[in-house]
């Protein structure tokens, strides 16, 4: 109707103020929300994953799962509801086989490509609507295996949009090829080419004789360092690692294989090693609209101590990881990993072996934390080098583009 | 001959103590806590005073200094040994002065005027022989031992003055002093403790199990989550290996990060350290002496990689809010004064 059109035009001029409903996975302490989710999953015929272990009271609003109880154990194999490549992907996520923001997104997109290839439109249905409905239970399933990352969320939004934009008169084969091409283009543009562009900018910032500190295993930062090494920059790398994931060892392996000279420390040795460091390169899981950087837990600590020693901190992040959420601390929206990972055996004794039996003992295994923008000196994206506070500008530009 | 037996026994005890100290340096820290080390050192020095052959205070001080140098050389990182030697030397000086009847109470550092006018007055050679000096010194050392035995309890007694209910307290690694402190407060108040595990040795795990056994709500976090969780923490209470003369700390690895995070969130940082940890050494920032331990990386590229695993961190005094010791609470700026009461400036370099 005329009035409806009028209001949409008004909204188009003002910035789109969409207050999204809170996602379920940060409302675990609300029984109404949990019930609603259980009903939805039942409708989609997906098993509900149950929480494990004593949860620290500060995080009672988040899920805590055990790696020993993957969701696939509750499914019948072969599953009639969920495509096998999605089942495999879910298992890979929950066991940590596929980890890291870019890796998870790429794996997701490849799995969706397989789903699209195997898809046939049922009679009396339109591909653009039915395929989107088919994808919904898959996404719920993957969410149950491991909460979706910001990059995955953006990728899914893109695919859904592309599918809904398929004109109804398009033949099925044509539509499927078009969608597969779209996905390939997305991966090529947003991840591969973006990495190349970011490397180009970042290499300008690396000078000969630099001592570069990196944390954990960021595929983008590793790529930058390898490229810089190929371009004959002389530098050495300090890899900082932390328990319990110890991802730094993977980064160490990749860098040493290329021949880059590396040093390895744990995060508690940060104050000892920082006086030698000239730059810090960090990867990001997502960049939030208020300029905060969401990344692996420990990143904010590194930025804090680097700021104290006056070492520049550079964050490398592709634009597809920018998200419209805002967050000021690491509590409201985070992920809790398996608490059993914190157990360790030293001198033949595992102190925390029976932590479940002790009622007042809790183990906390956080996955992400947020770094305030005043700790970060520069963000290197495929659109250029920007300060942390320019993230909402980039988001607006991207929205207008689309 | 009884005399020779006693001497052999004494030498044996000293050798055993040195061996223990040397062994304590490889990896996970000393075999016994620093409180025990301090008591053992003082007991040994008492034995030396009782059994060694000396005629004047100067001789005794030479003997103690010699033994002290051997003990500190066995394990340089265990500063409590050196501290106790200095305390005993100060005791000897005081007893000597008391026997002489001179008022050594006037601190040489008290007034710059005195320092300039007296010139080379402190040319005391401690050569006079006093009959009761031995007994007096041994009695004073006994008093010191009693003081050492009560340090943890004295610190724990102050717990209720500093911890209120429903607090969230963060601590790092394992400290027997902090454990006693928190357990004492837990008798009357309910609060929550977050323990940072302190990789790679993860002493924090033991601390957490001990605290949770005393029905204190405890959470174990990884070192990487310290800053993430700090915004919810009301107080940070830590122990330390050594308190330096400028009010700084030499504490377990990772403490500097905790101190910086606490300062960023304006959270008070409280250090529970008994007086025997106070050392006349001073370190300024850059000069850290790591004990190079190679953390066992089980991967094939170990030969191509440098691995660093420092044991201690330096924390500057600006980051510390309060010291709680067996003689009460003090600001870090006051530590240098306490030092002058415990040790004599001429003994600072053993």
UniProtKB/TrEMBL annotation, chain A:
Record's function text: Acts as a component of the translation initiation factor 2B (eIF2B) complex, which catalyzes the exchange of GDP for GTP on eukaryotic initiation factor 2 (eIF2) gamma subunit. Its guanine nucleotide exchange factor activity is repressed when bound to eIF2 complex phosphorylated on the alpha subunit, thereby limiting the amount of methionyl-initiator methionine tRNA available to the ribosome and consequently global translation is repressed.
Its GO CC terms are:
cytosol; eukaryotic translation initiation factor 2B complex
Note one Pfam family from the annotation.
IF-2B
Subunit info here reads: Component of the translation initiation factor 2B (eIF2B) complex which is a heterodecamer of two sets of five different subunits: alpha, beta, gamma, delta and epsilon. Subunits alpha, beta and delta comprise a regulatory subcomplex and subunits epsilon and gamma comprise a catalytic subcomplex. Within the complex, the hexameric regulatory complex resides at the center, with the two heterodimeric catalytic subcomplexes bound on opposite sides.
Give UniProt keywords alphabetically: Cytoplasm, Initiation factor, Protein biosynthesis
- Its Gene Ontology molecular function terms? guanyl-nucleotide exchange factor activity; translation initiation factor activity
Q: Which family does it belong to?
A: Belongs to the eIF-2B alpha/beta/delta subunits family.
Question: Could you tell me the Gene Ontology terms of the biological process aspect for this record?
Answer: animal organ development; central nervous system development
Q: What is its main location?
A: cytoplasm
| Top-level taxonomic group | Eukaryota
**PANTHER family given for it?**
TRANSLATION INITIATION FACTOR EIF-2B, TRANSLATION INITIATION FACTOR EIF-2B SUBUNIT DELTA
High-level lineage: Eukaryota, Metazoa, Chordata, Craniata, Vertebrata
Location in or out of the cell: Cytoplasm, Cytosol
Q: What is this protein called?
A: Translation initiation factor eIF2B subunit delta
Question: Protein biosynthesis as a keyword?
Answer: yes
UniProtKB/TrEMBL annotation, chain B:
The alphabetical list of record keywords is: Cytoplasm, Initiation factor, Protein biosynthesis
Q: Which BP terms in the Gene Ontology apply to this protein?
A: animal organ development; central nervous system development
The coiled-coil regions, if any, are: none
Q: Which Gene3D superfamilies does this entry report, sorted A to Z? A: Translation initiation factor eif-2b, domain 2 (3.40.50.10470)
Annotated signal sequence is: none
- Any GO MF annotation of the entry: translation initiation factor activity
- Locations listed in the record: Cytoplasm, Cytosol
An annotated GO cellular component: eukaryotic translation initiation factor 2B complex
Q: According to its UniProt record, what is one Pfam family this protein matches?
A: IF-2B
* Primary localization class, coarse: cytoplasm
Protein family membership = Belongs to the eIF-2B alpha/beta/delta subunits family.
Function, please?
Acts as a component of the translation initiation factor 2B (eIF2B) complex, which catalyzes the exchange of GDP for GTP on eukaryotic initiation factor 2 (eIF2) gamma subunit. Its guanine nucleotide exchange factor activity is repressed when bound to eIF2 complex phosphorylated on the alpha subunit, thereby limiting the amount of methionyl-initiator methionine tRNA available to the ribosome and consequently global translation is repressed.
Which proteins does it associate with, and in what oligomeric form?
A: Component of the translation initiation factor 2B (eIF2B) complex which is a heterodecamer of two sets of five different subunits: alpha, beta, gamma, delta and epsilon. Subunits alpha, beta and delta comprise a regulatory subcomplex and subunits epsilon and gamma comprise a catalytic subcomplex. Within the complex, the hexameric regulatory complex resides at the center, with the two heterodimeric catalytic subcomplexes bound on opposite sides.
Q: What is this protein called?
A: Translation initiation factor eIF2B subunit beta
- Which organism's genome codes for this protein? Oncorhynchus mykiss (Rainbow trout)
């Amino acid at each position: 109707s005329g009035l409806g059109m009028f209001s949409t035009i008004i909204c188009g001029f003002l910035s789109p103020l969409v207050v999204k409903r809170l996602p379920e996975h940060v409302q675990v302490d609300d029984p109404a929300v949990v019930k609603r989710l259980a009903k939805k999953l039942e409708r989609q015929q997906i098993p509900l994953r149950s929480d494990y272990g004593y949860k620290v009271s500060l995080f009672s609003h988040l899920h805590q799962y055990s790696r020993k109880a993957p969701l696939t154990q509750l499914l019948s194999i072969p599953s009639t509801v969920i495509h096998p490549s999605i089942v495999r992907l879910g298992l890979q996520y929950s066991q940590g086989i596929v980890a890291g923001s870019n890796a998870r997104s790429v794996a997701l997109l490849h799995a969706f490509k397989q789903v699209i290839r195997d898809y046939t439109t049922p009679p009396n249905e339109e591909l653009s609507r039915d395929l989107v409905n088919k994808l919904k239970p898959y996404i719920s399933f993957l969410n149950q295996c491991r909460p979706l990352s910001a990059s995955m969320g953006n990728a899914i939004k893109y695919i859904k949009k592309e599918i809904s934009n398929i004109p109804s008169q398009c033949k099925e084969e044509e539509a499927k090829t078009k969608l597969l091409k779209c996905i390939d283009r997305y991966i090529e543009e947003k991840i591969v080419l973006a990495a190349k562009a970011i490397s180009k900018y970042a290499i300008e910032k690396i000078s000969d004789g630099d001592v570069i500190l990196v944390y954990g295993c960021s595929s983008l930062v590793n790529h930058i360092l390898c490229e810089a090494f190929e371009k004959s920059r002389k530098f050495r790398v300090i890899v900082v690692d932390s328990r319990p994931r110890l991802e730094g060892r993977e980064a160490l392996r990749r860098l040493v294989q290329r021949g880059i000279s590396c040093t390895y420390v744990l995060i508690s040795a940060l104050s000892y090693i920082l006086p030698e460091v000239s730059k810090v390169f960090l990867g990001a899981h997502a960049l939030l609209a208020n300029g905060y950087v969401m990344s692996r837990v420990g990143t904010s600590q590194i930025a804090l101590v680097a700021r104290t020693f006056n070492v520049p901190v550079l964050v490398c992040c592709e634009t597809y990881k920018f998200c419209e959420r805002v967050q000021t601390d690491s509590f409201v929206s985070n992920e809790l990993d398996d608490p059993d990972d914190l157990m360790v055996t030293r001198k033949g004794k595992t102190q925390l072996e029976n932590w479940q039996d002790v009622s007042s003992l809790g183990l906390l295994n956080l996955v992400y934390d947020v770094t305030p923008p005043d700790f970060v000196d520069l963000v290197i994206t495929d659109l250029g080098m920007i300060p942390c506070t320019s993230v909402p500008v980039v988001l607006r530009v991207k929205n207008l583009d689309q | 001959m009884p005399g020779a037996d006693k001497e052999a026994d004494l030498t044996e005890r000293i050798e055993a103590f040195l061996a223990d100290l040397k062994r304590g340096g490889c990896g996970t820290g000393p075999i016994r806590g620093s409180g025990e080390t301090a008591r053992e050192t003082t007991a040994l020095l008492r034995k030396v005073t009782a059994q060694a052959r000396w005629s004047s205070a100067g001789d005794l001080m030479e003997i103690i200094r010699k033994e002290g140098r051997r003990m500190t050389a066995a394990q340089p990182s265990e500063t409590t040994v050196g501290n106790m030697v200095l305390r005993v030397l100060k005791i000897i000086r005081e007893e000597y002065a008391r026997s002489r009847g001179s008022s050594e109470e006037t601190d040489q550092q008290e007034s710059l005027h005195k320092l300039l006018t007296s010139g080379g007055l402190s040319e005391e050679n401690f050569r006079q022989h006093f009959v009761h000096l031995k007994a007096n010194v041994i009695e004073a050392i006994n008093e010191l031992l009693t003081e050492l035995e009560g340090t943890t309890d004295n610190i724990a007694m102050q717990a209720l003055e500093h911890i209120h209910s429903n607090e969230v307290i963060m601590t790092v690694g394992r400290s027997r002093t902090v454990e006693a402190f928190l357990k004492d407060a837990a008798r009357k108040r309910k609060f929550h403790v977050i323990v940072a595990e302190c990789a790679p040795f993860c002493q924090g795990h033991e601390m957490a199990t001990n605290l949770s056994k005393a029905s204190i709500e405890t959470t174990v976090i990884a070192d990487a989550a310290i800053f993430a969780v700090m915004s919810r923490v009301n107080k940070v209470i830590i122990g330390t290996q050594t308190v330096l003369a400028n009010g700084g700390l030499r504490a377990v690895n990772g403490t500097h990060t905790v101190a910086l995070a606490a300062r960023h969130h304006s959270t008070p940082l409280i250090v529970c350290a008994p007086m025997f940890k106070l050392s006349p050494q001073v370190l300024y920032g850059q000069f850290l002496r790591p004990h190079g331990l190679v953390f066992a990386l089980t991967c094939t590229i170990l030969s191509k990689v440098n691995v660093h695993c420092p044991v201690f961190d330096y924390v500057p005094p600006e980051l510390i809010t309060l010291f709680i010791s067996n003689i009460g609470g003090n600001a870090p700026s006051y530590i240098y004064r306490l030092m002058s009461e415990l040790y004599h400036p001429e003994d600072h370099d053993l």
